[in-house]
Amino acid sequence: MTWNKLVLTWYVDAANDGIVLKTFLRDIKRISRKTLAEIKFKGGTIYINGKQETVRKRLHVGDKVTVSFPREEVSQKIKRIELPLDIIYEDEHVLVINKPSSIVTIPTKDHDESSVAGMVLHYFETIGWPATFHAVNRLDRDTSGLMLVAKHRHSHDLCVKMQQQGSIQRTYVALVMGEMPWHVGSIHFPIARKSSSIIERERHCSGQKATTHYHRLNKNHLFSEVKLLLETGRTHQIRVHMASLGYPLVGDTLYGGEMLHMKRQALHSYELAFCHPLTGQKHHYRANIPEEFYRS
């Protein structure tokens, strides 16, 4: 697949007869004000029936609206990583990947650090896709599993709004220390950055609202297997919430867990469900739980 520019096309239906183009693009097609400005000033174009027009043009039934988005500025500071992506699904708007453990989503201070961003940017350059890296959900370095990546800024804008509305469902599987006594439940503890650390988070009344739903699947004398559904997406949410109950993740030494049979924290993004940001089609994916979770 090779694209030089992202181009989207729509036909005006009876419900939008007489609408102004700007209103059609902003309110109906949900293109952000910032993106419209970039189309205008950074090399994009807007056509109605093949003729370039301004956003003040009034539309009529059957009109063909074509928007050509400008190429995005891609950071050259992120090191490109020539590693194969485990792609679960891909089209012109979204990418679903199965992230390996032991790699960060986005490099922090060390720009030479290997990252999912570097892997995706290398892939984009290989296929000629003119966009930068837009993570919709981020996973910690040692967390494996499903990630949703938007393939252009408009898709990212829509996905962020979906996430804020709670319409992107993310389910994880974790191993927690000890025999967890409860079968199902919900945790509603706010989470804040710990004042003594730039990394660690804690349960704190001044923090952001955070909700995690859990379902215990199995248990033994060493650990319990738990399925977790996130209602919010705070940094270290699952790790902090489970530790606050007295059941930290296996391998999560930052929050009180022990390594046991793991070489990393036992957390896997197992399931991802969402409606496509542009087509509205339902998507539902699962990523097999790594074998290392069950090695003794």
Can you write the helix and strand succession as a string? EHHEEEEEHEEHEEEEEEHEE
The CATH architecture term of the domain at 170-269 is 2-Layer Sandwich
Chain-averaged pLDDT: 93
The count of helical stretches stands at 5
Supply the CATH superfamily name of the domain at 170-269: Pseudouridine synthase
In words, what does this structure look like?
With 296 residues, this protein is α+β, with helices and mostly antiparallel strands. Among the domains are: 7-68, RNA-binding S4 domain (Structural Genomics Hypothetical 15.5 Kd Protein In mrcA-pckA Intergenic Region, Chain A), CATH 3.10.290.10; 170-269, Pseudouridine synthase (2-Layer Sandwich), CATH 3.30.2350.10. Helices cover 17% and strands 28% of the residues. It has 5 helices and 16 strands. It has helices at 21-28, 33-41, 116-127, 153-164, 237-244; strands at residues 7-11, 45-48, 51-52, 64-68, 87-90, 94-99, 134-135, 144-150, 169-177, 184-187, 191-193, 201-203, 212-219, 223-230, 267-275, 282-286. Strands 5, 6, 7, 8, 9, 10, 13, 14, 15 and 16 form a 10-stranded mixed sheet that branches. It has a 4-stranded antiparallel sheet with strand order 1-4-2-3, with no helix packed on it. It has a two-stranded antiparallel ribbon with strand order 11-12.
